[in-house]
Each structure stands twice: as C-alpha cells, then as structure tokens.
Amino acid sequence: MPSIRSTAKNASFLCHHLLIQTQTCRYSIATTLQSPLYLLPESPSLQQVKQAHALTVTAGLADDATMMGHLLAALALSPSSTSSSDYPLAVFRRIHNANIFATNNMIRCLAKGETPHDSVTLYVDMCRSSLLPKPNNYTFPFVLQACSKALAIVEGFQIHAHIVRLGFAHDVYVRNALIHFYSACHRTESSRYIFDENSQSRDVVTWNSILAAYARDGQMGLAEKLFAEMPEKDVISWSTMIMGHVQGGHLERGLECFREMRERKLRPNEAILVTILSASAQLGLLEHGRLVHSTIESLNFPMSVSLNTALIDMYAKCGCIERSKEIFEKMAHKDVWSWNVMICGLAAHGLGKEALALFRWFTSEGFRPVNITFVGVLNACSRAGFVDEGRHYFKSMIEDYGIEPEMEHYGCMVDLLGRAGFIAEALELIEKITIQPDPVLWGTLLGACKIHGLVELGETIGKKLIQLDPTHDGHYVLLASIYAKARKWEDVSRVRRMMVDRGANKVAGWSLIEAQGKVHRFIAGDKEHERSPEIYQMLEVITNRLSESGYLPDISPILHDIQEEEKENVIKEHSERLAIAFGMLVTEIGDCIRIVKNLRVCWDCHEVSKMISKVFEREIIVRDGSRFHHFREGYCSCHDFW
C-alpha cells in the first residue's frame, strides 16, 4: 500500500463529528469489578492508565488479551496519550495471540497519535498476517479516522474497496466513517454519494457527518436544505450549522441559528458558545455577546480557559474593555492566549501603557511571547505613538526571543513610524525586508504621506501600489485623497478614471448599530431605513446644534471638484453620522451609543463625534477599521492619533 501523505489538521467544526465518539460505549473500559481498570475515569490521564496497568500486572492479569485490550481502550480514551505511540505499542506487542478487540484498540490509539500512518500499517498487517485477526466492522471506523487525519485519499480509496468486498458497506458506523473521511479529503461529492447510497442505513451521526461535509466545503445553502430535512437534530447538528455559518463569514445567520437552537431548549456545548462569542466580537454586537454570557451563567456552564478567553475577546471588541479586564483578573488559570487577547484588546483601545505593563507582567509570570503577542505589543506602541518603545520591542522580539518578524509586525512598525513623521525610517525598514513586502506595508506608508501632506512621495508610492495590485480600490482612494488634500482636482479625476477603467470600484463604507434587538446597517446617504425621515430630522438637529457651537466642516476628504455647500451635504450623510442620529432616537438620554464601522473614520466625522459627545452629553464608542474611539465630553481616547 502506498505511503501516507503528510498530515494536516481538519477544520474545527469537523472535530466533534469523529466517529470515534459514537464508538466509545462499544470499547468502554473493563467493567468487571475484579479489574483494576474499573477504577479509571472516563478520560483517564496517561499516569492513571499506567498505575492501573501496574495493578493489573501485580494482580496476575497481564497475559489476559481481553484485559490488555481494555487497557489499550483506556489509552485510546486518554487525552494525554497521543504524543507518542511507544507505550501502546509496547503493551500490544506483549499480547500473545492478540484478539480483534485488542487489535482494533491498537489501531484506534495509533489513529489518534502523531503518526496515523502506523494505524494503516497495522491494518495492512491484519489483512496479510495469519498471526493477527481479520478486520471486522469495528476496525474500519478507526483506520478511516487515521486516513482522515493524514488526508490519505489513495489509501482511503483502497480501504473503501475492502469494505465493499468484505460486505461492510451497509454498516451505519462504517458508512459514517466513510462520509467523514471523504469530507476531510475535500471530496464532498463522494460523501454525498455514500449518504444517498442507502437511506435506510442512517442515524443522527450520518446526517451530522454530511452536514459537516457541506459546511467544511462552504456549501451552506445545501447544508441548510439538509438541516431542514433532518428527522432528528441534536446539539452537534446545531453546532455544525452555527460554526459553518460563522466560519463562512455569515455571522448574523450564525447568531440567528443560535437563537433558534435556544428557543428549542437545547443546551449548547462549549464549541457553540465560543463560536457565537467570536461572531458577536467580530460584528461588535454587545447585546448579543451579553445574551451569550447570561446563557452561560444561567446554565451554570463550567468556565474553562477557552470560554473565559472568548468572553474577554468579545467584550474588548464590543467596546467594553473594563469588563474584559474584570474577567481576565478573576481567571484562576490563564494560558498564553488569554494574555495575548487581553494585550491586543488593550492595544486596540489605545491603552498603550496598560498593554505594555501587562506584557511585562506576562513575561514575569514565565510565559514566553509568540508572534501574536508582539503584534499586540507593537500595535499598542503604534496606537499610543510610543516610538522609542516600539523600536525597543521590535528589536527585543528578534534578538531576545528569536521571533522572525512577519508582515503584521512590519505593518505595526511602519504605521508607528509613519504616523509619528519618521517617513524616511519607515521607508528604509520596508526596503530592508528580505521577503517581498506586502502591498499593505506600502499602503500604510501611503496613508502616512496623506497625513503629513507628502504629495510627491505619496504619488511615487501610489503608482507603485497600483502596479502591484491594480484591482485594489484602497490604493486609488488614498492617492486621490492626497491629490484632493492638495486641491489637485485634475489628478483626482485622472486617478478616479483609472480606478473605473481597471475595475477597482471603491468598497462602500457602512456602519452598524445594535438597537431594539436588531442590527441596523447604514451606508452614506442611506434613505432605505424604515425610520429614515426621523433620522434625517435628527441629523439636522445635530448639525444646527454643532454649528451654534462653532463647528465648521472639513471637506478635504471629498474626492470631487464640486461646490463647497454640496461637499458639506455629502460629508454630513456619512454612515456613522446616520448611525449616531439613529442611536440618539432609540436610546435613552445619557446612554452610550455604540457604532461599528468597516472603514477608518474620516477626520471630519471624528471631530463631529467629539463635539456631539460634548454638546449632547452622550458617550459614543466607535470601532472603525483601525481601532476604538471612546468619545466623551469633547475628547477622544485616541488623542487624535489614529
């Protein structure tokens, strides 16, 4: 049989569908009271298994093939025994005349380990050797699990042929394993063929496996259709749909699916809760996140490190950094990812000093930073304008921790240096990169040229970027913005024509606000909302009050050579202003207004938000494409550095 190809991890939403879970009851640990293995917990540690093994030896049961089969079953269930196959193999090789139960559990141990090809090798020995029992229907789920883990499509094809030849093609557990195997190898059409082959040989795992196949393949439309047809749905069915929608970018549909599941009184598992918290975090929807948190508390759900970390991330990305800090400080146990999420959250909120202090605490606790840790640290320096600290930590990352900088690290440094006016140093850093610089780096430097009014350098970089990626709209927009700021309208028109000719249409900016149990989305000049007349009336009230307080619009970002009054009307209807006006209508006086925006907020809208917070005495929190802005009493947490 050909050698197994290199292994690769399956998508997370497939992991809980492994057929192995459905077989646990069939290969449970020995149940006779005389066996020392009876005392083992359901998922024993490796140390516990070894202690039970020692007791088995002293009890004179070491030569009992069935007893050793149960020992191997315990090893297969142990979460800490997958790093090495040496111990299970040593146990198996000492069994005289190993029976099918012991052999299947040895295959199961090897399938879970780091070298799943050994599982297939043992299966081949079963087929060829007269000293080993022949495969039965319990053998194939385990050996197919090994093929799934190794993405061994050729070997899996051959095992499928054996299954048919030996008459196990209609066994429901074998069929479920085949569906999962083909899905893991990205052969969704083969998974569907197995599913349709015998409609009488299906259980809930069969349906869940084909759902997972479509979800993994991004075919959520077909998954939805099958989900509606399912005769029975369990928590895994709902988990598959929720995770499939969220991982496919359909975040709001994932949230809706979670609500439907809860309406049916089903108890979510940890994977669902973490996924939904992630979706709430990505969308910046605080009320959804709070609903999940209250669900966790009402169910008395065990607060694992993963769940706490997901809550920290959700509150940070929804603008409640103080709540994130509370959860972080109460955690009895923290892993490196908990620290990383907290450091990155503080950085996004512009709390540079706190982020760096937390990093120092992190290292003093004996944790070793990883790549993402320094993304948070350098981002904290960039957001707070800590140039010297940024230089220090960038150097420390390389020299003290041996971490090779990636594009994100370079991006933070270029942003930090560029915003602080060290354009030449930022340019030198890009030119020294040994790998091909990402266009994002040049785009970051182009943004710095816009801030500091460097038209000539901006023009050079802009042309370079357009050559590197002629379809990216952001490069044209930035270059046109530089020309507009310098009032070079002919150049603005030329860049805009070039943008249209090359099919690089500008991404529409939008702003979200969560209110009255719904998510409301606005784009610039939006008049589609059901309360649009009231929103524009409120916008007029806001404009008049701000004008009385001395507000004068900054119309330089408008990329059209049109009349001043017309420009003022254009900028007045930016998406975040419509969202703020709507927020003023639907929230109580004094309540915080929370906005999520996909693009970076423009300078004029930033000034307007500061003034609204003062004139109307309202706190406004905006998460834009770059960072968080907390507007209070006429000031912003970014100190106008963004």
Describe this structure in words.
The chain is mainly alpha-helical and 642 residues long. It folds into four domains: 1-222, Alpha Horseshoe (Serine Threonine Protein Phosphatase 5, Tetratricopeptide repeat), CATH 1.25.40; 233-333; 362-501, Serine Threonine Protein Phosphatase 5, Tetratricopeptide repeat (Alpha Horseshoe), CATH 1.25.40.10; 520-636, no CATH class. 61% of the residues lie in helices and 4% in strands. The protein has 32 helices and six strands. Strands 2-1-3-4-5-6 form a six-stranded mixed β-sheet, with helices on one face. A hairpin with a 4-residue loop joins strand 4 (620-623) and strand 5. Helix 21 (371-384) packs parallel to helix 23. 46% of the residues are buried. Mean pLDDT is 87; it is low at 1-33 and 558-568.
Number of helices: 32
What order do the strands of the largest sheet run in, or round the barrel if closed? 2-1-3-4-5-6
Shape: elongated
DSSP strand (E) fraction? under 5%
Offer a few descriptive terms.
mainly alpha, Serine Threonine Protein Phosphatase 5, Tetratricopeptide repeat, six-stranded mixed beta sheet, 61% helix, disordered N terminus
